[in-house]
Design goal:
Rossmann fold; 283 residues; seven-stranded parallel sheet; 9 strands
Length: 283
Amino acid sequence: MTIAITGATGQLGRLVIERLKSHVDPDSLRALARTPSRAAGLGIDVREADYDRPSTLEPALAGVDTLLLISSSEVGRRLAQHRHAIDAARAAGVRRIVYTSLLHADASPLSLAAEHQGTERMLKDSGLAWTILRNGWYTENYTGAIAGALAGGALVGSAGQGRIASAARADYADAAAVAVSEDGHEGKTHELAGDAAYTLDELAAEISRQTGRTIPYRNLPQEDYAAILVSHGLPSELARAIAGWDVDASRGALFDDGCQLSRLIGRPTTPLQASVAEALART
């Protein structure tokens, strides 16, 4: 069985490939990358595959049995890009697609949900076998703010007391490796999230505990939080989106207590304490 991985040079893609090497023969893996030179160190076969140049996709997928379609990072363009990948997979004779979607994509208020909903529909209408991995938030989305919190003396956001059931990127990589390499996942949708949810108050308390400093959480109106993100160099559209996702989190959009992720990977998800410690080690 040959397995191809899109987004192979991204943070998730690289982790998935490393995990897969312990599940299957590395010679059966194929990295798909827009810029193949960036994938040279992955240690597996690399093929050029650009979502925006459909002519590159079908040749890259020739001989592939299972495609791990890691969702594109280009919000607003994902649906067309994913359509190109699905059409090319069907034309190339791919048997199954495993897709990384969004937690509770069918009901999520997050602005990201619409493109995932559309991709899930395309998959189910494609005639191919499919597996959907509805990934929750990466813990790194929040621990990435630790350096700024330490510099500014507070963790800021707009998530209120919303509980966030995030998991480490490595946990989701393990789940993808299992789903593409093991039997029993065809036609299934997995809602994947961390075992233990937390609020940003609790994240701030954990940062304080591990650093010996008092780092409070400051909850801000959406517009004020977006303005702070812009002041740190983020484009205004992205800053507004991130602040909006926090507001959605305050209403439960990032919560799940089904523990499907830990059952799928056969171990507990990475604790918040470990993710904070890892982030602090890098600051």
